[in-house]
Amino acid sequence: MIELTKMTHKKFILNAEHIQEIEEVPETLITLTNGKKYIVLESVEHVVREVIKYKRKIFSGDL
After folding, report:
1. FRET label pair with 6: which of 12, 14, 51, 62, CA 20 to 30 Å apart?
2. Is the pLDDT of residue 6 over 70?
3. Distance from C-alpha of 14 to C-alpha of 17, rounded to nearest angstrom
4. Fold for domain 2-60?
5. Residue 20 gets which letter from DSSP?
6. CA 46 to CA 63: how far, in whole Å?
7. pLDDT of residue 63
8. What are the boundaries of each domain within the chain?
9. What is the 3-state secondary structure (H, E, C) of 1-63?
């Protein structure tokens, strides 16, 4: 799970396991495997870093 910010400046938690695609259009657009889309304030690079950090926690057992 990663914390992101909607365009309304409201924080939310996204299950990173369901991310299918991340685009910069110029906002960051995240498409999930179920087709739902989120536009967030964070950059593509930030989202990728957060997903990597989350995955490292899972694989290290440090949850």
Report:
1. 62
2. yes
3. 9
4. OB fold (Dihydrolipoamide Acetyltransferase, E2P) (2.40.50)
5. E
6. 20
7. 61
8. 2-60
9. CEEEEECCCCEEEECHHHEEEEEECCCEEEEECCCCEEEECCCHHHHHHHHHHHHHHHHHCCC
* pTM score of the predicted model: 0.88
Q: For the segment 7-35, what is each residue's pLDDT rounded down to a tens digit? A: 999 999 999 999 999 999 999 999 999 99
For residue 21, what is the enclosing H or E element? strand 19-24
- Residue 8 has φ and ψ, to the nearest 5°, of -85, 5
10, two tokens? 């409201």
* Pairing verdict, β 2-5 and 28-32: unpaired
The predicted structure's pLDDT at residue 60:
86
Largest separation between any pair of C-alpha atoms in the chain = 36
Half-sphere exposure of 17 (CA within 13 A, CB side): 2
